[in-house]
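Extended Data, panel c. Modelled sequence:
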Amino acid sequence: MICPSCGYDNIEGTDRCEECTTSLFNLDDSQGGSRDLARSVMENDLSHLEREFLAVSPGSSVTEVINQMKEARLGCALVLEDGKVVGIFTERDLLNKLTGKTAPLPTVAVKELMSPNPEVLRETDSVATALNKMSVGRYRHIPVQNSDGTYCVTSIKHVLKYLAKAEW
């Protein structure tokens, strides 16, 4: 593959020129759809994904939060204090922390059972960044800060819908 910038003859399929490091990613069409998919995941930001949002306060009872999650058909709730994310309460928190012999009462405050200080992505982060963070951290839901400072949540379900709707 000849680099359009410096003319160096690179090995076919190389993503960067070995001589000048110019991106060759868009030049190889031999892989068709898989290249388009990879490019889309790397280049599109989280604004391309569906996102959801349920906010609760740290003092809300777990029972109240569970009922809100059930009613909204959501797998998590963001715990906000003074407009900032202080935690996330997920189905996994429910299963791991509210069941078993030492389970607290369902009236306990959600701040006692939430996952505190979750990693928060920005709306301008790529879909690939979200996939990486979810995979490495073993998350199914991840908070996203919008450009206006508000928050929402994206999930692996939203990433899969994004991938399924795309035409490669």
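Residues 14 and 24 are 7 Å apart (CA to CA). This feature is highlighted in the accompanying rendering.
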